[in-house]
Amino acid sequence: MGFSSIFNFFSNDVAIDLGTANTLIYVKGKGIVLDEPSIVALSKNNDKIVAIGQKAKEMLGRTPDEIVTIRPMKDGVIADFEITEDMLREFIKKVEVSRFLRGPRMVISVPSGITEVEKRAVRDSAEHAGAREVYLVAEPMAAAIGVGLDIHQPVGNMIIDIGGGTTEIAVIALSGIVSETSLRIGGDEMNEVILQFFKRNYNLLIGEKTAEEIKCSIGSAVPLEKEITVSVKGRDIVAGVPKIIEISSVDIREALSEPLSVIVDAIKLSLERTPPELSADILDRGIILTGGGALLKGIDERIKEETNLPIIVADDPLTCVVRGTGKILDNIEAYSKILLKSRRI
User: What's the half-sphere exposure (Cβ side, CA atoms, 13 Å) at 88?
Assistant: First the structure.
């Protein structure tokens, strides 16, 4: 084993999908080793981390005054620099990345509409969390690679990645993004409109976690064959006491109509901006849906109705971005053209 091989042996490189809702980590040679909510629970008294990831999510809305739950990522970018750094460090510790000789190389996916300042924040957080080198890649490009598309071909592919904080719409050809739209609307916004719907129509306060459960269980983008009804528990705003109400999937669909309309309009606009040759490719190949939002009931039908194009929901849409980021990590040289400027430490 040569000296550089020994170096690599002790340094597990990692690929990270640093998402608003979840952080996924892929370790070279091991595959996806972590998939946890991007949530940190802190003690107000000494700013010490009490819990992270899934354990912190279970505390959401249930913590005593001295513990606060924080989501350091907002709209796909870092909202709280120090906590993101701590969260990354803890997650990397969890996956037992060896730092015996030197820190790992990290490939991190970021929204395509990210600013230079936001890029710098991601890079700095990763470096402070122990990275030796940091490479950034646009999420739709990572998702396309994760789905198995050959992005080097002179063929147009349209990919829509609906994440927790952002929706990325991109047309990809010849290792580049031909047209892109990055909306700061995603699963979180859908949770928020459900929350507001209950407040406005039923004077009922529900938590973020409850809103997400409602979206996943009965949320839909088109009428369902059999509409579903569930019981929702919350607090009556007027009386201040716990209350339970019955709610139908029809109501939730109405609540979700606004963010879904914004996403659909952005898709149409993106198609209008696409060069005609690539439009013909998209007509043949369809639009690929990835990200957690792709799991919303009937979202593919809704986009198909509005665009008259075939819609393909990716297999395991939640892991497409991290799988693609992992493929880039496994062969950085082959994908060097698509990286968003790397910086060596």
Answer: 30
